[in-house]
Amino acid sequence: MAEDWARPVVFWEITATDSAKMTAFYKEMFNWQMTDGPAPRIAAGIGGPLPGPGGSIRPGAHPGVSLYVQVLSLADSLAKGERLGGKTIIQPT
Fold it and tell me: Pseudo-torsion of CA 59, 62, 67, 72, nearest 10°?
């Protein structure tokens, strides 16, 4: 693998204050098949012509979208993010 490469999104999640309503919306809107439960999982590719990362819809107090990006080194990526003006708000576990 090259020293530098495009970092792909490997997972995503939608946070919704009403996850059941959001799940119903996306099922109807895009014909997504999802697992049952409080944080339904959406399969990678979702049956479309091109594969893509899997995702989920989860409940939360603050709606939003999170992208999970693959990196070579988490420590190096966090340091780079801080050099670029970002801030680590949760330490890796």
Answer: -100
Q: How many CA atoms does the CB half-sphere of 11 hold within 13 Å?
A: 7
Where is 26: in which H helix or E strand? helix 19-30
Give the predicted TM-score (pTM) of the model. 0.66
Distant-in-sequence, close-in-space partners of 74: CB < 8 Å, separation ≥ 6: 92
Question: What does the alpha-carbon distance between residue 13 and residue 66 come to, in Å, rounded to a whole number?
Answer: 5
pLDDT tens-digit map of 12-58: 899 999 988 988 988 888 778 888 888 888 877 655 556 678 899 99
d(CA 43, CA 91): 28
Query: How far is Cα 74 from Cα 42, in angstroms, rounded to an integer?
Result: 25
